């Protein structure tokens, strides 16, 4: 043990030297930590105009690079799409094969609708590439004649309150589930008072609703009884399909507080009132 201890024994002068070295290290560490060695003139003052100009230059460079990297699409006849062309357009191998099999039968695609029916591409992809479709002039002329005949054709309009689910399914976009949902909702509210009530049907998008309204309307001179909102009681208001008991109480409280309701727009001031349905609610109400 004595030889080992000799390695850790220091004389007084050695101890002082070690202590002085430690002090110097601590001083330099403190100077490095607390001092700022950056040059005083390192900050470059830029005005907002200069910053905006530099940002505009950066944006233009990014835009130019993005345009250089993007694939430019030129007008083309979709009947002659190759494997490589289809790949660059975003089509899958299955969709390209469907088109090629169709063309092998000596059949032709003459419209964007035909192209989607043959290949099965998604609506989003069709919307992005169909503007570049270029068909022969005779095809375009024939398509315009077909559209003209279709426009001039008289479409018979049926009563929305008497139509059956099977008839509703003849409209593009209306399946069995949606047709039954429309009929069930009609029965629930005691019949439609206006076509705008189709907005309440879950899953019925704007385009399909417009197509339905071209084929079906609320016909006849039916005079529906209206509820006077300034005289109605709670149970009277609850009879309206869109008004529940709590909302009926709030409407009456508001009416009493403001000594009557002078316009339907006032109802939107009630916190829980469904303002997005006011066009349908007023089909059941009157102000006097």
From TrEMBL:
Domain of life, source organism: Bacteria
Leader sequence residues: none
Pfam families: HHH_3
Any one Gene Ontology BP term: protein secretion by the type II secretion system
UniProt entry tagged with the keyword Lyase: no
Membrane-crossing residue ranges in chain numbering: 16-34
Gene Ontology CC entries for this record: type II protein secretion system complex
SUPFAM superfamilies the record matches: RuvA domain 2-like
Keywords: Membrane, Transmembrane, Transmembrane helix
Listed name of the protein: DNA uptake protein ComE
């Amino acid at each position: 043990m004595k030889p080992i201890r000799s390695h850790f024994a220091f004389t007084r002068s050695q101890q002082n030297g070690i202590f002085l070295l430690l002090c110097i290290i601590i001083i330099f560490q403190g100077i490095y930590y607390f001092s700022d060695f950056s040059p005083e003139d390192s900050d470059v003052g830029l005005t907002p105009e200069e910053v905006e100009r530099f940002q505009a230059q950066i944006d233009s460079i990014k835009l130019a690079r993005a345009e250089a990297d993007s694939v430019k699409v030129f007008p083309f006849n979709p009947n002659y799409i190759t494997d490589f062309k289809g790949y660059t357009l975003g089509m899958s191998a299955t969709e390209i094969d469907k088109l090629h099999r169709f063309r092998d039968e000596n059949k032709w695609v003459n419209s964007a609708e035909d192209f989607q029916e043959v290949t099965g591409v998604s609506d989003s992809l069709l919307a992005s590439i169909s503007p570049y479709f270029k068909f022969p002039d005779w095809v375009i002329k024939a398509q315009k004649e077909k559209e003209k005949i279709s426009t001039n054709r008289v479409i018979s309009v049926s009563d929305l309150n008497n139509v059956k689910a099977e008839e509703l399914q003849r409209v593009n976009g209306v399946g069995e589930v949606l047709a039954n949902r429309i009929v069930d909702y009609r029965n629930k509210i005691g019949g439609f008072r206006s076509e705008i009530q189709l907005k309440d049907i879950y899953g019925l998008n704007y385009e399909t609703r417009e197509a339905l309204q071209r084929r079906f309307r609320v016909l006849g001179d039916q005079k529906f009884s209206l509820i006077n909102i300034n005289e109605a009681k709670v149970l009277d208001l609850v009879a309206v399909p869109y008004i529940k008991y709590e909302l009926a109480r709030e409407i009456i409280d508001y009416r009493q507080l403001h000594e009557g309701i002078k316009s339907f727009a006032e109802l939107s001031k009630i916190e829980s009132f469904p303002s997005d349905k006011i066009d349908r609610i007023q089909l059941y109400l009157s102000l006097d």
